[in-house]
Input
Amino acid sequence: MLLEIRHHTEYRYAEPIRESLMELRMQPQKTARQRLISYELTVDPAAQVFAYADNYGNTVQHFDVPYPHDRLTISARTLVETSTPPPLPAYLDRAEWDHLSSEQVRGDWFDFLLPQGYTAITEKLAAFSKDLGLNNPRSADPLTAVQRLCTTLYEELAYTPGVTEADSPIDHALDQRSGVCQDFSHIMIALCRQWGVPARYVSGYLYTDREADRSRPDATHAWVEAYFPSLRWVGFDPTNNLVAGERHVAVGWGRDYSDVPPSRGVYKGDVESELFVAVSTGPTSEVERDLELVRIGSPRAGKDGRAQPDAAYREYQQQQQQA
Output
């Protein structure tokens, strides 16, 4: 499936701030079933953007706007080609539990077995698990147990935007028996890890083309990948009770949301700020299949192709030259 993703983020400040530093995780992964065809990032006001790969292989872009501004706009446009993962087996051998307990698996995926951050086991989560009969996963093979968990969370928790924030503790969702994709994912990860199944948080996008989809089409999405020694990583979307497929576009993997937010940063200035985000994900046929392009720059470009600073930056440069 050929998908075009547009992700627009805008920070507005009540008064001009002196400087802002930002970190982005918006560029989709390159995997066996996901081909990144093009990625274009624009930043306004003008800024030089740098990139590196973090500990989990995610592409992280960062920049500094070191002069006064009252608005910061970040726009990413991506073309990605996805494919359907191979079908899962009906079940796994019960011996898979023993493989999951091996020193090799526990050593290789140590980060994705620890109950930490938003995936820590709380008293409310323990009670929730007990009430729903989730405390005996070894009554089935690991794949069946994780699939049942995905379905149980879908059935027991309502999808209700606005009742929690992206970084809310899981107890907020458990109190109300509702939440959004981050809450569903954190709860599922916490229980998988308690069972001894490595699980990681996936941040990305979902093309919503079914009435049954509960995810918002104008927002980013999150789901879970669980590790099985015989299958490797398998994606599960508890918000929609799906195995992750060609409609899912992965951007980043981490231990929880705090490892892979689409954007975060700091600024100098004692003023109020507002955040506006718009996302669209949908199929497209306007793709050069043999082209792979990653373009990072500013919407202001001169004849030489270089980014041109705005008036605030020119004033800042003059001040620096006179200092």
User: Anything to note?
Assistant: The helical segments are 96-100, 103-108, 123-131, 142-156, 170-176, 181-195, 311-322. The chain has two domains: 2-82+261-322, 96-244. Residues 2-82+261-322 form a domain with the Immunoglobulin-like fold (CATH 2.60.40.2250). Residues 142-156 form the longest helix (15 residues).
